[in-house]
Write a structure and sequence with these properties.
By secondary structure, this protein is α+β, with helices and mostly antiparallel strands. Helices cover 23% and strands 25% of the residues. The strands form three sheets. Strands 1-2-3 form a three-stranded antiparallel sheet. A hairpin with a 2-residue loop joins strand 2 (48-58) and strand 3 (61-68). It is globular.
Length: 178
Amino acid sequence: MDPVGEKAIRASFVNCSKGEASRINLPAGLGDLRWEDLDFLGWRDPGAPDRGYLVAPRGDGLVGVTLRVPQGVRRSFTKTTVCSVCVTGHPGSGVSLLAARRAGAAGRQGNTVGAYFCADLACSLYVRGRKRSQLAGRHEETLPLEDRIARLVRHLDDFLDKVLDGSLVGERQAVPGS
């Protein structure tokens, strides 16, 4: 992923108002990130642990999505769970169901889509081995790194397709990267 600035990040959000996007707490150390290791920028809001955000390159621009942990979801601290984006196994609460309000009219009517993500939204780092799951006895994939990255991007694109679902036609378009 190419480095992006605060203005581009805030302008990329497709499932919230411009006012809401202006109030999002951006990740600390944005300028110090190793952008070459990221397929998308994902972070949880430390001030609101039930919120997460992701910004991904898509086409010629960026698509940003606000995420929420649904209320009433029980987490098991003894079971192993797998991220549906990067296919990394985690113990206990290392994976969270994150729901995104759909973009456009569907989202304004309250429609959401969800997926199981690494709770810290560091999928790109797990795929590249820059971060390791705390799962004891985890299996090692034999799939080459390039294929694991392609799978992550494909799964993320599938999720973003569900969030967008054609809603960008005539509405806010993805914005250029910086």
